[in-house]
Amino acid sequence: MKKTELSVYEFLRNKIINLEFFPGEELDINKITSELGISRSPVRDALLRLELDKLVEIFPQRGTRVSKLDRKIIHQERFMRTTLELGVVALLREKLAFENIRSVFATKLQGIFLQQKASLLDNDKKKFLKFDDDFHHLFYEETGNQWIWDLISSHTGNDHRIRILSYNAQKIADTVEMEHKNLIDAFFRGNIDEALEIDRKHLERLFSEFEPLEKNYPEYFV
């Protein structure tokens, strides 16, 4: 199967951020080129991009490995996500002043919430994270800020990795579900101030999860 440079980058990035390649894992370039049916050149170019994303580390003459999880990098990615998202949610204030629009928006969120709940019952953490993203993505779509969502998505690969790791804990996944339900309720009532506070705590909660994750997966962290 032939791959362009862009699709090689996307192929490798998806495997890394979804923990199919584990933090600290050595990457076998020959195996990758053989699997994709391509030369080393597009793989090398893709790895250089992933290095800029802080997702791989390249050691000349020694090899390439998936970057371990770094608190400092994840803090910065989450700070960017939180700052931009709260600004986007604030933009909903004027639009959701109209009850009919508010009801449609909250109903869309509820539909995603039910899909996420089903994925949790099925113990499908990958789908759970997808619906988590879909839920928040709707804030950006509703306010005409798709480009901001794309920007965040392309620059928060390490944040994505630790979210998948954290969702292995049932208690954390249950908390995410509860917080999404509270957000829907706030939007149904048109209380944007309450929604902002719920979303802020929801997004910043990740910082409190570092210690237990480092304890359970010490080999994955810097």
The secondary structure category is mainly alpha
Percent of residues in helices comes to over 70%
Task: Characterize the largest beta sheet: strand count, sense, and whether it forms a barrel.
Answer: 3 strands, antiparallel
The run of helices and strands is: HEHHEEHHHHHHHHH
Q: List how many beta strands DSSP finds.
A: 3
End-to-end distance: 35 Å
Radius of gyration (CA) equals 19 Å
* Rough outline: elongated
Brief write-up:
This protein has 222 residues and is mostly helical. It is built from 12 helices and 3 strands.
Please render the helix and strand layout as text:
Elements: H1 5-17, E1 26-27, H2 29-36, H3 40-52, E2 56-59, E3 63-66, H4 71-90, H5 92-95, H6 99-121, H7 125-142, H8 146-154, H9 157-166, H10 170-188, H11 192-204, H12 210-216
Antiparallel strand pairs: 1-3, 2-3
Helix pairs in contact: 1-3, 4-9, 4-11, 6-7, 6-10, 10-11
